TrEMBL record:
It comes from Amycolatopsis rubida. The keyword Oxidoreductase applies. GO terms for molecular function: oxidoreductase activity, acting on NAD(P)H. InterPro entries: FAD-oxidoreductase/Apoptosis, FAD/NAD-bd_sf, FAD/NAD-binding_dom, FAD/NAD-linked_Rdtase_dimer_sf, Reductase_C. This is Pyridine nucleotide-disulphide oxidoreductase. Its cofactor is FAD. Residues 6-56, 69-127 form the FAD/NAD(P)-binding domain.
Length: 319
C-alpha cells in the first residue's frame, strides 16, 4: 500500500494552500489532497463577486500540485438550506445553476441579511435602497413555491429566482464518531491532526477568545500555519486579526477584528464613506469601513498591537 504521508481533506483554497505550504517548509514526503467536487481546486470568492455578473467568467483553476503521517481537516462549510427549496451558493455548480437562471429572471429574491449588527446594518441598508433593492427587515420566510415567497408579516412576493443566504455550518459530518471534539468546528487536540479555515475552531491569543472564521484571508493564513505545524518539529499557536470584505454596487465594505456591542460610528450613515469602531474594554477590537480602504488597514495594524481605544480615536481624527 502506498504511503499517503500528509493527507489534506478539502481541496478548496485552504486545502491547496496547506499542501503548498508543506512543500515550502521542506517537507518532501507524500502529499494527498482529497476533494468532494469533480472540479480541480478553485477560488470560491469570485463565485459571488464576479462569476454571476459576467457570463463569460471562468473561475481561476488552482493547479498547484495507505498510511498517513499527518492530517489537515479543511473541508470548509456547507450552506444552511430551507425546507422550501431555493438556490444556495457555495460551489461552482451552484454558481452555474444561478447564472443560468439570471437572463430570464425578472424578479429575484434573496433570503438572508447582514453580517454586522442592527445599527451598522441600518446604515448599509441605504446602499440597497439607493440601488432599487426592496429590503424587507423584521420578517421571516414562511413558504416558497415556484413563483411566490410568503413572509411572516403576511406579504407575498412574486419571484422568478430565489437564492438562500442564511449562513453556513462546518462540513464535519464525516468526522462523527472520530473522537475529535466537534463544537461548531473542530477543536483539535489530537497528535498529528490539524484543522483550518471554516472547519476549525481554535483559541486566538490576540483576542483571548475561541473563534471560527470563514473568510478568505484567514483561511489562507490558517491553512499555511496548519501545514507548518503538521510537518514541522514543533507546533506554534496561530493568531490573526480577522479581515473580511464585500463589494456592494461599486462600494467596498471592509471589516477587521471582531464586532462588539460597544460601537462608535464616525461619519453619517447616509454618506458614501464612513467608519465604525468597536471597543472591548480599553482596547480597539474591530473596525468597519465603507469606502475607506487605506484607513482600515491602519486599524488592522492597531488591533495587532493591542492599541488603546484613545489611540484608535486619534487615528480617526488624524486621517
Amino acid at each position: 500500500m502506498r504511503e499517503a504521508g500528509l493527507v489534506v481533506v478539502g481541496a478548496a483554497l485552504a486545502g491547496l494552500r496547506a499542501a503548498t505550504a508543506a512543500r515550502r517548509t521542506g517537507y518532501d514526503g507524500p502529499v494527498t489532497l482529497v476533494g468532494a467536487e469533480p472540479h480541480l481546486p478553485y477560488d470560491r470568492p469570485p463565485l459571488s463577486k464576479a462569476f454571476l455578473a459576467d457570463p463569460d467568467y471562468a473561475p481561476p483553476t488552482l493547479t498547484d500540485t495507505g498510511a498517513l503521517s499527518s492530517l489537515i481537516i479543511a473541508t470548509g462549510s456547507a450552506p444552511v438550506s430551507l425546507p422550501f427549496g431555493g438556490h444556495t451558493l457555495r460551489t461552482l455548480d451552484d454558481a452555474r445553476a444561478i447564472r443560468d437562471r439570471i437572463p430570464t429572471a425578472e424578479r429575484a429574491i434573496i433570503i438572508g441579511g447582514g453580517f454586522i449588527g442592527a445599527e451598522i446594518a441600518s446604515a448599509l441598508a441605504g446602499l440597497h435602497r439607493r440601488n432599487d433593492v426592496d429590503l424587507r427587515c423584521g420578517t421571516t420566510v414562511q413558504a416558497v413555491d415556484s413563483t411566490k415567497v410568503r413572509l411572516s408579516d403576511g406579504s407575498v412576493l412574486d419571484a422568478d429566482l430565489v437564492i438562500v443566504g442564511i449562513g453556513a455550518r462546518p462540513a464535519l459530518d464525516w468526522l462523527a464518531g472520530s473522537g475529535l471534539t466537534l463544537e461548531d468546528g473542530v477543536l483539535c487536540a489530537a497528535p498529528g491532526i490539524c484543522a483550518a479555515e471554516d472547519a476549525a475552531r481554535w483559541h486566538n491569543p490576540l483576542f483571548d477568545a475561541t473563534m471560527r472564521l470563514g473568510n478568505w484571508t484567514s483561511a489562507t493564513a490558517q491553512a499555511e500555519a496548519a501545514a507548518r505545524n503538521a510537518v514541522g518539529p514543533v507546533a506554534s499557536p496561530f493568531s490573526t486579526v480577522p479581515y473580511f470584505w464585500s463589494d456592494w454596487y461599486g462600494n467596498r465594505i471592509q471589516l477587521v477584528g471582531v464586532v462588539t456591542d460597544d460601537v462608535t460610528l464616525l461619519g453619517c450613515p447616509g454618506d458614501e464613506s464612513w467608519l465604525a469602531l468597536y471597543r472591548a474594554g480599553d482596547r480597539l477590537a474591530g473596525a468597519l469601513a465603507l469606502n475607506q480602504p487605506g484607513r482600515i488597514m491602519k486599524y488592522r495594524n492597531q488591533i495587532t498591537r493591542h492599541a488603546a481605544w484613545q489611540d484608535a480615536l486619534k487615528l480617526a481624527t488624524a486621517c
